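seq as requested:
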Amino acid sequence: MPDTEAVLFDYGRTLVTFDYPAAELSVVVERFRPAIAAATGRPAPAAAEILEKVLLPLEALVENPGEDEVRYLDVFAKAWRDAGLEIPEPLLYEILDAEQLVWDAAARVDPVGVQMLAWLGVHGYRRAVCSNAPFPPAMMLRQVGGNGVGALVDGVVFSSQVGRRKPASEMYMAALESVGVAAAKALFVGDRVREDYEGPRAVGMRAVICTAHSAQSPGHGIPTIASLRDLPSLL
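struct tokens:
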């Protein structure tokens, strides 16, 4: 059997799933409309318009194929400007933080993932999250702290902390460093071939795609598991 000391996990569609919380985000935007009007000196657009023209287009950043991470507050500010609204940065941060609190609540942790993270810890394996997420690190760390994932891993690395995105090698090396394990002794588990299979293998890790929540089929020849419950067979 492989001499495995650590398992590194992608986050979204591997350990957690999300549905777009449109109604909850609309409530947040509505709450900030008076502050937006005061900051811009004119009536704020309707919450539905802000959702459509500002927040929804930003979802493409989560799927950004580039390897350099963006400063999210900069692109957040640009999205508001493109909608004709010049928002001061302190207010932007407040709005973004409130928006991310909604996403914190929307994150559904896979119960099988919780069981497997606990099982790995009991059996002496190191565990880490290694995931692309452009949002401010403090907000992402709050999310994994609040949903319990953070307490079940030994390291957490998001792309906004590193300034690079998977499949950039810096992401995997930062995650390996966080658990003190060499690439040859680690297994990577995720839902995307480029970021979670090809990228980890390029730095010397073994890798497998978990198809339980993946959006696309990995294709022929890519090793897969149907559930995180199947991980012990690979260790």
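The mean pLDDT is 96.
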